[in-house]
Amino acid sequence: MEFPRSWLELSKRQHQVTEQLANMYTQSSLYKEMRTELDPLLGEQKARRSSALEEITCVTPFWHQLWWIICRSFKNFQGFSWVTVIQAIIEVIMAVIVGTTFHYLQDDCTEVQRRSVVLYLLTGYECFKSVSARELFMINRDLFLHEHTSGYYRVSSYLFGKLLAELVPRRLLQSIIFTVIIFSITGIRKDVNGFFTMIFTAMMLTYSTSSLSLSLGAGKNAEAVPTHLIINYILFMLFTSGLSLYHINFMYDLSWIQYFSIPHYGFSALQHNEFLGQNFCPEHKTAEISRCQGYVICATEAYLANQGIDISSWGFWKNYVALGCIMIIFLSMTYVQLLHHKKKRCF
């Protein structure tokens, strides 16, 4: 259906008249006076709207949010159970390789250094496997931003929920598997207290290193932080700790570096647990002691002293205090970084 030419011309003229009237109004003094009155009101309205968008309110309490996040994380965990199985298999293979290399260490003075090497390898492995923890918050960052800004949960609920449901179970399972196999094959520290202390030390090592990785993976520019930065830190700290196995004092002027070394505290605690109160000279016979002179000595307290390890009770517990403080500091940094993520708005 075609409109008559007269109608089209009339419509065109009306449109032109409307535009002319609008232009005349915008140039009039009445328009300018009205804009002067309305602009401040519009500015206040936009400011209130912006503050309302930035303020995030949650209807549900903290514990409800925490439980909801834990349940959802466990469901995701079950959906990728094959990943956990593969990780467990790798743990078993690595533990068997290390264990068979140092198969059943004898209670002999010549085995002291070999025991230290096993503990050193345990320290290094627990640190290196924790580097992957930085991906915990990187993978679901967009989902976190959307749900947090929508008021589903607080940052604290999200942080503790992810730690309790994903980080703690996986790292704890891996530490137990690796430590139990090493303990069974090599025969280090045969008593029950020593066994559980070794597991607890491995767990503290893992969580301390994981907290470092999390603090570097939770920031807004986490992708710009290379993984090899963490690996280089661990390698350097393991290098300084490993020199003590050969009685090499690492740069006296830089000895303060050990206070910032996660591997140092874990390795010291493991050696303290393994050697304190033991004597590796069989039956304390003079003939047997004679072959233990020189590089290795029978009294393990003296061996620990040569390593620069305090043999007092505080010398043992201060390692756990230091690892706990490191964990709290880095987890606090992770929380602050999650809290200050820029909120995305959809218009």
Your description of this structure?
- The chain is mainly α.
- 70% of the residues lie in helices and 0% in strands.
- Helix 5 runs parallel beside helix 9, helix 5 (112-128) packs antiparallel against helix 10 and helix 9 (192-217) runs parallel beside helix 14 (313-339).
- The two termini are 40 Å apart.
- The model is unreliable at 49-53 (pLDDT under 50).
pLDDT average, as an integer? Answer: 76
How much helix is in the residues? over 70%
Task: Give the biggest sheet.
Answer: none
> Which structural class matches the secondary elements?
mainly alpha
Distance between the termini: 40 Å
Low-pLDDT runs of 5+ residues are: 49-53
Radius of gyration: 32 Å
- What is the string of helix and strand elements? HHHHHHHHHHHHHH
* Number of distinct beta strands: 0
| Tally of alpha and pi helices | 14
Roughly what fraction of the amino acids lie in strands? under 5%
Characterize the overall form.
elongated
Topology of this protein?
Layout: H1 5-26, H2 29-54, H3 62-79, H4 81-101, H5 112-128, H6 135-138, H7 141-149, H8 155-186, H9 192-217, H10 227-242, H11 262-275, H12 286-290, H13 300-306, H14 313-339
InterPro entries: ABC2_TM, ABCG_transporters
Main location: membrane
Subcellular location: Membrane
